[in-house]
Design a protein that fits this description.
The chain is α/β, with parallel strands linked by helices and about 230 residues long. Helices cover about 50% and strands about 15% of the residues. The protein has 2 domains: about 140 residues, 3-Layer(aba) Sandwich (Rossmann fold), CATH 3.40.50.2300; about 70 residues, Arc Repressor Mutant, subunit A, CATH 1.10.10. Helix 5 links the parallel strand 7 and strand 8. It starts with a strand and ends in an 8-residue tail after the last helix.
């Protein structure tokens, strides 16, 4: 079951989203937040699987909240669950109005795992939450095209490129990164590479750590910008 923190500055909209999502047998709403700052505080306290940023416009405050929510937490040595040293943060799904689709690149670079427009149906929304909770990425087809076009343009080198080269990945990590950049889900990668889904998740975690990235979308951007994957004409 995926746990969700709803973020929206309108109480009636929060109530509506709670009613719709709790009606799903595999989803549960663990909290609500009205502001980005409150979302940061509650995400740290409640540790939901997904933070649904259902805002009319993910402006500067929302982008900063996404950045803080998706920042991995380094645990103290005496913490009860410190065996892994780093606790994975909640994943963020942004639900924005159609007039603010332009905020998507900033939200994704800040660490959001998905961006959906608020004209999506309930089935699309719940499916997107499940996909993001599983560690995959969700973006609209139009935005996918825009992101690919953006990485084709001349640009200054991204900081990741100066610290991470393609030779820093193992052969299997490179295979997984190429599969992620091709849009495959974890289950599809596991089936096509004949490895366990848990192994795929482990490889993805190692890739994100090496890239100092917070989401699969950032890894995909790196794959295109570094030339590992070339967009089709």
């Amino acid at each position: 079951m995926a746990s969700i923190l709803i973020v929206n500055d309108q109480s009636l909209q929060r109530l509506g989203l709670r009613m719709l999502l709790t009606a799903q047998p595999d989803l549960t709403v663990v909290g609500e937040a009205a502001t980005g700052a409150e979302a940061v505080r509650l995400s740290a306290a409640l540790r939901p699987d997904v933070v649904l940023m259902a805002t009319s416009s993910p402006g500067a405050d929302g982008i900063e909240a996404i950045r803080r929510i998706t920042r991995p937490v380094r645990l103290l040595p005496d913490a009860p669950d410190s065996a892994g040293a780093v606790r994975l943060p909640p994943r963020v799904l942004v639900l924005a109005s159609t007039t603010h689709e332009g905020h998507a690149p900033a939200a994704l670079r800040a660490g959001a795992g998905g961006f959906l427009l608020d004209n999506a149906g309930l089935d699309q929304l719940t499916a997107a939450i499940r996909v993001v909770a599983a560690g995959d990425a969700v973006i609209t087809p139009g935005l996918t095209r825009a992101l690919i076009d953006a990485v084709r343009q001349p640009r200054t080198p991204h900081p990741v490129e100066r610290h991470t080269g393609s030779d820093s990945f193992t052969g299997r990590e490179r295979d997984v990164l190429l599969a992620v950049a091709s849009g495959w889900s974890n289950a599809e990668i596991a089936a096509r590479l004949s490895i366990a889904p848990t192994t795929v998740k482990s490889h993805v975690s190692h890739i994100l750590a090496k890239l100092h990235a917070r989401s699969r979308v950032q890894a995909v951007t790196y794959a295109y910008e570094s030339g590992l994957v070339r967009p089709a004409a």
